[in-house]
Design brief:
The complex is a heterodimer of chains A (269) and B (348).
Chain A (H helix, E strand, L loop, with lengths): L4 E10 L2 E11 L4 E5 L6 H8 L7 E6 L2 E2 L8 H4 L1 E3 L12 H7 L9 H6 L3 H19 L15 H14 L4 E5 L7 H18 L2 E5 L3 H7 L2 E6 L2 E6 L1 H6 L1 H8 L7 H5 L6
Parallel strand pairs in A: 3-8, 3-9, 6-7, 7-8
Antiparallel strand pairs in A: 1-2, 1-4, 4-5, 9-10
Chain B lengths: L9 H4 L6 H20 L2 H26 L7 H18 L4 H23 L4 H21 L1 H4 L5 E2 L4 E2 L2 E2 L3 H23 L2 H11 L1 H6 L4 H27 L1 E2 L7 H13 L4 H25 L2 H8 L1 H19 L3 H15 L5
Antiparallel strand pairs in B: 1-4, 2-3
Helix pairs in contact in B: 2-8, 3-8, 3-11, 3-12, 3-13, 4-5, 4-6, 4-11, 5-11, 8-11, 9-11, 12-13, 12-15, 12-16, 13-14, 13-16
Classes of the chains: A alpha/beta (269), B mainly alpha (348).
Chain lengths: 269, 348
Amino acid sequence: MSPLLSVENLSKSFGGLKAVADINLSVMAGEICSVIGPNGAGKTTLFNMISGVLRPSGGRVVFDGTDLSRVSPSRFAAIGIGRTFQNLALFKHGTAAENILTGRHTHLRSTVLDAVLYFGRTRKEEIEARRYVERIIEFLEIEHIRDAVVGTLSYGQQKRVELARALACQPKLLLLDEMVSGMNQEETEDIARFVLDIRDELGITVVMIEHEMRIVMDISDRVHVLNFGRKIAGGTPDEVRRDPAVAEAYLGGHRPQAPAQKTDPHVGA
Amino acid sequence: MRTGDFKETYGELVALTDSPPVWLWSAVLLLALILAPYILNSYALSFMIMILITVVGALGLNILTGYTGLISLGHVGFLVTGAYAYAIAVSKYGLPPVAGFVAAGVVPAVASLIVGTPSLRLKGLYLAITTLAFSFIINTLILEARWLTNGARGIAVQRPILFGVSFDSDAAFTYLCLGFALAALLATLNIRRSRVGRAFVAIRDNDTAARVMGINLHAYKLIAFATSAFVTGLAGALYGIYLSFVSVEGFPFLLSIEALAILIVGGLGSALGAVLGTVLIVLLPEVTRLLFNLFSAQMDAMFTTGAQELKSMLYGLVIILFLRFQPRGLVGAWHDIRRFWVHWPLRY
């Protein structure tokens, strides 16, 4: 089976700085895959290239058999790539429901003229979109905040609305950029459960950037480790945990501990 | 048990409003507007006509600046293009007024595409300056293309006869303007609650996220620009008809500033705000004149001789005051009052 996403020799330079250098990785359909690494390792830059925010300087990304360098960035959502952002990127004056509706954009057809009349097909389409949004709202258990202006919501709630908006695109591949940063234990566990549900119930492949080692080691099928723009390790959580290069990247020097043992002693058991 | 305002169909969720009082008061207001031309004297009626025409223009700019977040200082350019398109089609080539109105919308929309294609890559102040330049270029083009526009002499325009109904009297013309204003309001509200409107607002609030959602930024900015120019052009045609004479002098640059003042005073990004702002800004010079009259009769003379200068000072003053004390505009104030009223005596 060919992978859903394959990143081949991908590079990005900003002036003289190589943010991402010659990264290769592939994600199979139905996997939950994590990208980890210290701050400034190039994780978000990698995501930006996969989701069309940045153009690669070298190499290529193949998604579902399509070379993404031949696709206009505004078409990425339509071919099935959805994402959330590290620092919230919601439309802050709108309600939660409106934000999620925006995610339906590529699945609706109406033009300005249709919109002005708001009649027949257009109205039916809007109602259908709203029905779909309600299903996502139910799925992520955010019924109580659907009509709240997102600027007034807590950080964790906003993150969840953003996740809902990404799901509204009906992606095949979902990129989650530090979903649980700044969340408390309970919220983190909720998100972990949702990520598993997204994969198992909706059949969406998930790639996440995460610093929270518990969630990475517990739910990932594969983990890729980046440092200084290069991939230094990749494999199952267990393999990565034992990799000396990973320990060195996180802790410096040649100490034998793995990063997971530093954050949580239960994970290795 | 959970309580709240529950809906039974998804149709109710996408309706313009689900509140019976809102429908009731809208109906009352509409009735009052329909009766007004019979009750008001001709001086008061002239203000009503100006408000209705300006509402159309303000709603046009609101699509671009309010929804999409693109600042235009050159909207008077679309106003004048629309007015000339109507005047040339109807007075010069004898086309029916309906065709004139179509031209008044389509010609500015096409002009906006020509200006927009290169300049919408710019943002904020740079776009504002480009649109400002556009409005001056349009003025020069009109003055130079004498074979088409009569240059500085302008074109006289008759009040139209549409579908056998003459809109010659001021009362009848008020109804025509009312029709356009209502249509523009409904169109704007409909755009706002549809896919296209959400794309506009997404571009305003976060363009990177908008692109990741699959919104083609360049295309949607152009659509916003063209839609805005179309509506603004119609306002220009109405204004030209009302003045019964279309010339470059009839559309001073101050109108662009007035339009922005309306949006800021009303509350950016809200159709209701555009309407409220229009009422306030159009009546502001008159109200100020009446106030000053109370103190001295000499002030009256100042208002007739320096009307334009005083207007621009007034607009500047209200923009500053609103940005400082009520940045969400009249519509924000209205929301605060309503919240207070609903929740009283509780704080929230």
